[in-house]
Design goal:
607 residues; alpha+beta; Rossmann fold; Elongation Factor Tu (Ef-tu), domain 3; Alpha-Beta Plaits; eight-stranded antiparallel beta sheet; six-stranded mixed beta sheet; 15 helices; 34 strands; binds guanosine-5'-triphosphate
Length: 607
């Protein structure tokens, strides 16, 4: 029927690489691509340059990637090895689980100088749930501090995985690469024979291409797909005619059909990635199936903040930029927000803090916008006076009369060298954590488990944990649900006016401490002006802390001696630059840092 019969099923291997951040996943993937001559050195450079700037600068993998490699194994046969990349950060853990669901096996990469970390474990659990064949790889054996024997024992004890034949590798020096390719062929099972069933394909990534529309990456689980097919996305219910199907080698190469077990892409003039979400099942409109693949989940933003242009004229540019980013980012939400203090802007929802930072940076860099960002907040739930349930993603919207105020909680696992257990437990307790469990991972390292309010985690928890453990502890968390707590809204008044964007929701027990610390910090951050500025923290009508900023007495220019015009100009220019990132609240110029002040108060500040 079709010219191409697809790669013989028995010679297909679908696998991915899982690792804790920085253990060498990307370096190893590059080595595999080069060793199989899927890309040559020059292309590697080019491909590198094409990648997202932010991704590279931050040294983290944000988007999934995939490539098909052709590899002739020691048995003389040529195999198609489909490498499916997984993102490395908790914000994107749902994407990890979907990309692993598209595989039969994975390489578990562990840094032989570090050992098992929190994300190693989290990813292994996902791999086990998906019943994948796991091939352990001890990487960075070239490092003087590498101790593969210790790490091998650790993986055996902690993960319960036989490591007697773990591969010793150095992705940097190209050691162990052939062995890895051989083991993928030998140990990862070929996909099951499902060609004759009705089409079902699992979407594990998609991105927006301005020419072809959304490019969808998927694994054909059952059946086959050819150009011209009219497909239906089972969760959105949307239907499209397929323009093109192909494989990633690693560039897009069109083919005339994709069969069960194969991994590839399609283009079908889909307008936004939200229409072809990760985890959705593709089937045929006619002769398809009614049974979607398991595990689809609508991802909900967990963290919200306000984005306001410093210059009101940039509002429509901001709207356009958010629209463009959303074409490529199904998890980004935004809706217009009007604040009496800030003017017109948007309330935006993100998967987590990293996702939020990435979007902010892209808006500023790629779209040249100057933004004021309000402090991130989680989504609270409460009952309004009438008994109606309400989601509160902006503290200033919490009704004065409400009941049953609840906040999201997460289960947090921290792995730390045992010397730092004390300081980390102290941190978790200060952040209202409930201790759940402590186990000895190995002789020298400990796993701590806490239930924590998400609001306490999205501030500076990660940074604090790192600094208290000199960088050695790692963490991993997932949302578990909502809990009722004694929470109150803390309002800030500047010059007698309530500054909506500075409001926060805090636990009543902490409200005095946070209120005091916050007004003190704002006093430092807000520049003096021509008049005295009172700053107050209040709960309802009760003021719980106050400070004031004294009036500016001298003209700044008075410092310059009469004739020195250039210096005067320079000073004025400097001031103008500083002014850019300010908003006027109650006649007072408030700089960007003040909007974030509530995040950096720490646990023991303010007294
Ligand atoms: N010495 C040594 N360094 C390595 C080796 N493999 C990777 N590295 C280095 O370790 C660092 C992290 O490597 P990456 O490949 O970016 O790690 P990753 O796991 O992909 O990190 P994310 O993309 O953040 O998940 C880089 O500086 C690499 O050069 C190795 O075998 N030996």
């Amino acid at each position: 029927m079709h010219l191409r019969r697809g790669m013989r099923r028995e010679r297909i291997r679908n696998f991915s690489i899982i690792a804790h951040i920085d253990h060498g996943k990307s370096t190893l993937a590059d080595q595999l691509l080069m060793r199989t001559k899927t890309v040559d050195d020059r292309d590697m450079q080019a491909q590198f340059l094409d990648g997202m700037d932010l991704e590279r600068e931050r040294g983290i993998t944000i988007k999934l990637n995939q490539a098909r490699m052709k590899y002739t194994a020691s048995d003389g046969l040529t195999y198609a090895l489909n490498l499916i990349d997984t993102p490395g950060h908790v914000d994107f853990s749902y994407e990890v689980s979907r990309s692993l669901a598209a595989c039969e096996g994975c390489l578990l990469v562990v840094d032989a100088s570090q050992g098992v970390e929190a994300q190693t474990l989290a990813n292994v659990y996902i791999a086990l749930e998906n019943e994948l064949e796991i091939i352990p790889v001890l990487n960075k054996i070239d490092l003087p501090g590498a101790d593969p024997d210790r790490v091998r024992r650790e993986v055996e004890e902690v993960v319960g995985l036989d490591c007697s034949d773990a591969i010793m590798a150095s992705a940097k020096q190209g050691i162990g690469i052939d062995e890895i390719l051989e083991e993928v062929v030998r140990r990862v099972p070929p996909p099951p024979d499902n060609r004759h069933k009705p089409l079902r394909a699992l979407i594990f990534d998609s991105y927006y291409d301005p020419y072809k529309g959304v490019i969808v990456y998927f694994r054909v689980v059952d059946g086959q797909m050819v150009p011209g097919d009219v497909v239906r996305l089972m969760n959105t219910g949307k239907e499209y005619q397929v323009d093109e199907v192909g494989v990633l080698a690693p560039k897009q190469v069109p083919v005339d059909a994709l069969y069960a077990g194969e991994v590839g892409y399609l283009a079908a003039s889909i307008k936004a990635v939200a229409d072809a979400r990760v985890g959705d099942t593709i089937t045929l409109k006619k002769g398809g199936t009614a049974e979607a693949l398991d595990g689809y989940q609508e991802v909900q933003p967990m963290v919200f903040c306000g984005l306001f242009p410093t210059d009101a004229d940039q509002f429509s540019d901001l709207r356009e930029a958010l629209g463009r980013l959303q074409l490529n980012d199904a998890a980004l939400q935004y809706e217009p927000e009007v604040s009496s203090a800030m003017g017109f802007g948007f309330r935006c929802g993100f998967l987590g803090l990293l996702h939020m930072e990435i979007v902010q940076e892209r808006l500023e860099r790629e779209y040249d916008l100057d933004l004021i960002t309000t402090a991130p907040t989680v989504v609270y739930k409460c009952l309004r006076a009438g008994g109606e349930e309400m989601n509160v993603d902006n503290p200033c919207n919490l009704p004065d009369k409400h009941d049953n105020l609840q906040e999201p909680y997460c289960r947090m696992e921290i792995i730390t060298p045992k010397d730092f257990v004390g300081p980390i437990m102290e941190l978790a307790q200060q952040r209202r954590g409930d201790f759940i469990d402590m186990t000895y991972l190995t002789e020298t390292r400990t796993t701590l488990v806490y239930d924590l309010p998400l609001a306490e985690v999205v501030t500076d928890f990660f940074d604090e944990m790192k600094s208290r453990s000199r960088g050695y502890a790692s963490m991993e968390y997932h949302i578990t649900g909502y809990r009722k707590n004694d929470l109150v809204r803390l309002d800030i008044k500047i010059n007698g006016e309530t500054a909506d964007p500075l409001a926060s929701i805090v636990h009543r027990d902490n409200s005095y401490r946070v209120g005091r610390a916050l007004v003190k910090r704002l006093k430092e951050l807000i520049p003096r002006q021509q008049f005295k500025i009172p700053i107050q923290a209040a709960i309802g009508s009760r003021v719980i802390a106050s400070e004031s900023i004294s009036a500016l007495r001298k003209d700044v220019l008075a410092k310059c001696y009469g004739g020195d015009v250039s210096r005067k100009k320079k000073l004025l220019k400097k001031q103008a630059k500083g002014k850019k990132r300010m908003k006027s609240l109650g006649r007072v110029d408030v700089p960007q840092e003040a909007f974030m002040a509530v995040l950096s108060l720490g646990s023991d500040d303010g007294d």
